[in-house]
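QUALITY CONTROL LOG
STEP: pairwise intake check
CHECKER ROLE: data steward
CRITERIA: each record must contain a sequence immediately followed by its structure tokens, with no blank fields

ENTRY 1 OF 2
RESULT FIELD BELOW
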Amino acid sequence: MTDVSFISSGHNVADARLHRLVRACRRRGLAVEVLALGDSSDGPQGARVRTWGRPTMRARGLLALRIARAASGRVVVAPDPDTLLAAWLLNHARPVGRAARIVADVHENYTDLLRDRSWAGGPIGSAARAVPRGAAAVARRADLTMVVDDHIEPLHARERVVVRNDPDLDLIGLPGPQSTHPKAVYVGDTRSSRGLFEMIEVIARSPSWTLDIVGELAAADRDGLAEALTRPELRGRVHVHGRRTPARTWDLVRDAWIGFALLHDTPAFRDAVPSKLFEYLALGIVPVVTDLPRQRALLTEVGSGFVVGRPGRDTVEEAVELLAAIAADPGVLEESRAHALRWRERIERAGTAYELAAERIEALVNR
């Protein structure tokens, strides 16, 4: 019998947060299935995994219903507005006693995020904007609501727990020795609003550096990236790996000197702390971020990293100057790296919220 079903019509089975939550549930002995997108071999170990291809935006709602209907767990965990709505609707159509417990995993402000998507205008965008509003109502009524940060809605729910994107240290592994040459990395959803083309320009103007990009590339930016990489000065210096499992991702980049998070100032990102920042820090990869409040606050708290694009300064210009200074004197990174690794030690002692999340999910299984 399946205890917990993780379902998604928008996330790949290689998603890092999904892996972290599944691992926490498995450590408590729960039987887990994952129904999501991608290649089943990229799914979390120890879970039964079933996958679908990525749907068109028009077909995503139907796929959400199909995936929700296929879920067999006593508890259903949904990170997307559409699968959350689908699970809720199907639950209310089931006979009394056969309904699953519903867990909303709200890890982004979806309404704000829609403003960052090229397809979110017109009729499709109007329909898409209605889905998060309905899902927000469901999230308030779910048996358990997990949010990635205090400011993420709903602020009030039946049972609400903050599950921050702290790194799973066993999953990402140990810090490695740094590359013998200056190496930058970017991990995660790859698109223009996350600083893709700023990173490319910075590397183009920093001839001693290489850049590894690991993550799913937005369809709207594929042609632009392909064109940018034809520049002679970038030949052999930018490596685009595509999406990888969390473990494989960090094996590719753990020797990096710095990690980029050059997010644009959008409603979705202004109050965000990308999970990659926690993972960079845990591996001693020094973050280089744009001047957004939450990113800046995290780096100040840890005492590690650099902020570029400050008021009156151009992001690319400031980052190019920073990379030139680091290449000339790698010792510039020593203090930041040391503080990052001390932060990792504190995280290791304190534990993460994933264990609390798994404990609450187990309680629902046994209810």
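ENTRY 2 OF 2
RESULT FIELD BELOW
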Amino acid sequence: MMVAVPGSVAILNLISDPWIPVLRRSGRDIIRPDQIAEPDVLRPDWPRPDLNLACYELLIGLVYLAHPPSGSDDRTNPPDAAMLRVAMKPLVPAFNLLGDGPRFLQDLELLQGDGNPPEMLFIDSAGNSTARKNADLMVRRGRYKALPLPLAVMALYTLQAFAPSGGAGNRTSMRGGGPMVTLVKPTGEGLWPLVWANVPRGEPLGPDDLDALPWMRPTETSKPVSKKSRVSVPASDSPSKPDPEVFFGQPRRLRMMALGGVVTHVIQKPWGTNYSGWRHPLSPYYKNGSEILPRHPKPGSFGYRNWRGVILQSESGMRPWTLEQYLRDIEGTRCSLIVAGWAMDNMKPLDFLWSEQPVFPLSGEVERHAEASVEAAEQASYAVAACVKDGVGEDDTKSGAGQRAREALFTDTQGAFEEMLESMSEGQSFEAGEWIETLRAAALPIFDKEVIPGLADLGETRRAEAIRARSKLIAAFKGWPPFGKKIFDPLGLESPSRRSR
């Protein structure tokens, strides 16, 4: 059995010590958090994309604690590096990684138990059970036998921020396992403009308020009592001025053990904090009845089909608060949105998404046209998939032609959709008929690519079925059954009457 007690190791303070690898215009460097405001710092430079993503979140959280904007005027007048260093100084006592006192994102209690290799901090590392069963096909083991302290910091924060299901009592993150993270990216380059664009409005955390951070107080455990688990709810459910803990959730009970300047083991105990009702400003949400739930990435590419409730307004979706805030604070500006995160199947990672999508300044009416256009494309994709399946017949089960055709429709119309939103943001009117024609012009070549090459090998009956399937697809873009009405309705177009057919 191990006891997580400090040894004669460096402590590493996240505020006063340089530990963050970055890329400057002049090359690589290691900096303190306040130095992100230096103009030649371009981005974090960790060896993994999930660490870079989490580093953005951590830096945004630190600035929110130290020097958040108080209004729209501050958004266009960010503090410089010297101001940021002064503002962060009161945070120093709360941000030691190791040592006798409170430890960053670790249990205040001296945990006892078997130590795990530090690779357990990485979402795509195999758990003990997976490794024993040699089932680690999509996850990895044996890569991180010891971690330098800076890498341990970033891995620890990443796990606490994105924690997936981890067995009995090991809680998921505040946003569930593998949340979708979105970051407003202004047009100018540099790390500081991106971080500042995403910091919510608020007030600095004073030196007497550091117990707002979960590792500065005893862990709020969640072991069920009488079949009910204790849950942690925010003091305020408003994302416009979130609770400081929103950037520093601590669902896992962990203590690091270090020797010779590296972390060698991590002790984990179950029943950490069970978060409920928290809305993170860097994530989109959706409504499920009376519940508001965080969105999660799906495997594969992220395109305009996924924009509703993330980039575009949606009745059932809630865009990330930082995007809403940025568009209000700097009205009419152009920016893009980084959309990233782990796509998970329970505790198994499937894919890591990192995508950058354009954001157009749109009026409410144009937003509704854009959302309707996405829905029409969604219905058109179902039509294309169904017709392709009919065209290839039984072979679709093996070839996946229908699903491939559906994906291709969105890929092939991505550019046209962005061009349409660009023109509407500049004042041009929405033409529903033109969007229908764009979808039709993409759908028919996709059908032909999947179905025509095998047509000669089919019998007469099957060839006739393939021809009928193509005719049905053509009819869909004229508003005729069985698919036309669903494509036309979102756009406010009337399907033709029977007499006009």
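INTAKE CHECK: passed for both entries
DESCRIPTIVE NOTE, ENTRY 2: The longest strand covers residues 348-359.
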